[in-house]
Amino acid sequence: MEFVKVLKTSRFLDPVQGYAEVKRYSEVRYDPLTGHSSRILEFPVRAVQRADIAELIKNSRQFCPFCPGVAEQVTPKFHPDLASCERYAIGEALCVPNAFPYDENGAVTIMTHQHYVSLGDFTPGIMTDAMLCCIQYLKDIAERQADMLYQSINWNYMPQAGGSIVHPHLQLAASSSPTNYYAAAVPALRRYHKDHGRDFWVDLADEEHRRGERLIATTGSLSWIVAFAPMGIFDIVGILHDVGSPGDICVEVLENLVAGMLKVMRYIDSLNMNSLNMSLYFHLGNPLFTPHLRICPRVNIPPFDTSQINYMGMLHGETLTILKPEDICSGIRGSWNN
After folding, report:
1. Is residue 98 part of a domain?
2. Measuring CA to CA, which residue among 173, 13, 5, 168 is closest to residue 104?
3. Residue among 104, 171, 196 at smallest CA distance from 141
4. For residue 170, what is the domain's CATH number?
5. Is position 335 within any domain?
6. Is 47 exposed, middle or buried (0-12, 13-18, 19+ CB in 10 A)?
7. Is the pLDDT of residue 197 over 70?
8. According to the model, what pLDDT value does residue 303 have?
9. Which site in 160, 216, 235, 291 is 20 to 30 Å from 260, CA atoms measured?
10. Is residue 111 part of a domain?
11. Cβ neighbours for 277, distance < 8 A, ≥ 6 positions apart
12. What is the structure's pLDDT at 306?
């Protein structure tokens, strides 16, 4: 397995140094599966200051469709032809149809009765009940609609990450149509198996373990890795090696998955970042596609509160980051067992 990176050097005459020649360095990295490219920039890294979101949270309480007493009145119910429950409920978690779906089977899981939970304050109970609600819904869809092969559990946490409602909620998709992520990954997995006769995900975990640069930890049958070519400012990948579909997630796997998610969330919180995007991907019936999770924090770059997504990401599909994956791995690995 190759981890390809191209080192780039820029030269210019710097007025700060009397117009002497100055060199700046960057890297272009290519994902070992899809070839997706990411750019690691040499950029002065400034500590992120924790944002004051008190006013945002206060204003969002004025009307929240996901708060107790309101959710039961204003959220839709599943059509009986498509699901076995009007709504799915476990503990405080409640799974309902998405009133504004992205695809034919869109759902939302309200994670807790609490209107706002900071990244560092999510508990195993909140996360486990929410994930179980999602799993029940996706299992039900798989049993009733055999062509809904592309399933995912997703999270836009807070407005900076695209969340339109502050109240913690996950978004679910079960579709017959692949997103661009699947469209790139699925044929790449076939090519890898044809060329090497082995499973890409096992090879990736083994190679990262051998190199020791980006493997955070192995917990049970899960591998936690910092992506070599990140899809965000940094990108944590959790690989569920013994799972093929949501229905295969047993108690032990779910406990390890939730524990790992919480560790990543607390690490992001420790960096004063308060937003993230997450996706847990499944491709039913495809033994080459091992379910896996990706978590990317969302942050505006100081000191000018600049969006991390500019023309390179929006119009060229190119990820930019100023944080080296190996440095992120060192940081999160140090806090993993705390």
Report:
1. yes
2. 173
3. 104
4. 3.30.428.10
5. no
6. exposed
7. yes
8. 65
9. 160
10. yes
11. 154, 155, 156, 157, 161, 162, 232, 295, 296, 298
12. 76
